[in-house]
Amino acid sequence: MRKIFTLLAALTAAPLAADPATINNIAFSKVGGTFTFNVTIAHPDSGWEHYVDAWRVKDLDGNVLGTRQLAHPHVEEQPFTRSLSNVEIPADVDTVLIEVHDNTSGWGPDIATVKIR
Known about the structure:
single chain; five-stranded antiparallel beta sheet; three-stranded antiparallel beta sheet; 1 helix; 8 strands; elongated
């Protein structure tokens, strides 16, 4: 009986695979020399044990231009939109990537390409 209990305990303690975050919408604006991005994300946040905790803007060479940290789960607010302001993007960059991170799976597979110029 002990082996069954140990196996059951191990299975219930392991994190469950969940659907990755998806990017539903991206809006951006340029004011002066910087950009503001408004990103709408959907993810089956389940609480502190599994939630989207960041999204970022990168150039096509992989350089991170800005990161929006998310301080808490959005269990009751799906999808949700958060902004990141004052993103400096070099003048020769006309396309950026948006990626989403969750606290158990890391950077997700849904990467949005945004033409900004």
